[in-house]
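Students often ask why we bother encoding 3D structure as a string. The short answer is that it lets us treat folding as translation between two languages. Here is a chain of 251 residues written in the first language.
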Amino acid sequence: MYSKPFYISDPVGNNELSFEKRKNLQLFVPSLKQISSFDEIELLSPDEWKVTFEDYDFDDVLQTCYGLKNLYEIQWNWKNLYLVDNHNHVFYFWYLARSQRIISDNALLYHIDEHSDTRDPYKYIMKPDSQDLEKVFEYTNSTLNVGNYIIPAQKEWLVWEVVQIRSEEALREYITHPWIPSLNTHGRKQQSIILNLDLDFFEPELDFIDYDLKKQVILDIAQKADLITICTSPFFIDQERAIEVFKDIFK
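And here it is in the second language, the structure alphabet:
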């Protein structure tokens, strides 16, 4: 899946948002590219007219957004790291990782984000279909959007517990009481850990939260995680700033 770029033209998923009000009625979804260096990350430009997200903001102004030229897979500290633009794409990569036995069901999800992303899509993927990556891919792009992909993973038991880190208080709580994994008799963690980071946590309105504190917590969880998924959120943060922050933290 994600081997070729494609467009979503029907009013589904992210394209359903304000569909009846927008003139542009399709969204671009880039293909997945494996890279060995962060220097290979590229952004789309308005000249290419490949809109990856479009919706009206709180002032009822249409925001036309251009995200990543590709979705990216890279090894970081011998772990799979996926960088996407729209956050619902991580849902597919969680299930891909499960199929590869990188993570298992009942995982612990650390969600570091400006938003909770826990809206309810009211349509869930069931266990038999979740074993079929083609069906997971279809569900990810035709049902889910950037704000409702976590609850389906919980309903299907891929995720058991979600730790929401969305404030300075939550960051300091983690520093004071970091989660220490329980180990089995072979000294291995008994629960998989997913770090799910949205780079909109670094958008300018949240600059009152200490940058180094954010970075410290993110890196500590990343070291413990089995899988890392990161989103650039073109609707909520300037993409050049997002990539700059991403490189600073992980490079």
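Translate back mentally: The chain has a mean pLDDT of 95. Keep this in mind for the problem set.
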